[in-house]
Structures are given as C-alpha cells and as structure tokens.
Amino acid sequence: MIEEKIIQLENEVQKLKSIKAEIKSKRKKRNYSGSKLRPYFIEAKKLKEDYKFSFADISLWLKTFKKIKMKPDGVRSAYRRIEKEDEISGEG
User: Fold this and answer.
1) pLDDT-derived band of residue 15, with 50, 70 and 90 as boundaries?
2) The whole model's pTM is what?
C-alpha cells in the first residue's frame, strides 16, 4: 500500500518536472533591455563616437528631438548596458 503510493508520487513528480521543462522552453527569452534609449541607440552611439557628445548632450537631444525624457545618468546606464548586450549577441 505504502509502496504503491510512493511509486505514484514518483510518477507525479516526473510528470510535473516534464511539465515545468515544457513551460520553461516555451517561455519567450528576452535578452534586451527595455530602455527608452534602445530605439535610438544607433543614433546616440553615432553622436557619442563621431560628434563627441556627452551623455548630458545625448539626454538633451533625446528630449528636444525625440520627446524622450531621460537624465544623463539614465542615458549613460542604458548606453553601457545596450552596448554590452550588443557585444554579447554579436550585433555590435
């Protein structure tokens, strides 16, 4: 009696593990940050590298021309995070 319940419990555990694995594999993988800077990152990178803009300048550019409000610290943080993500994924 007890052995049957143990066997049944082990079967249930195996089924539960397979269900969890299936759910995990179906879950959408999200590697990129959801930063407000991401849609404009290529332009921001060009401003930073070619025109030597500071992060404060990029913040002002975003506010003036793209209607995106970000503080310079937020721009710097997002810029570095996106740059690192792109290096890892091989897009940079």
Assistant:
1) very high
2) 0.64
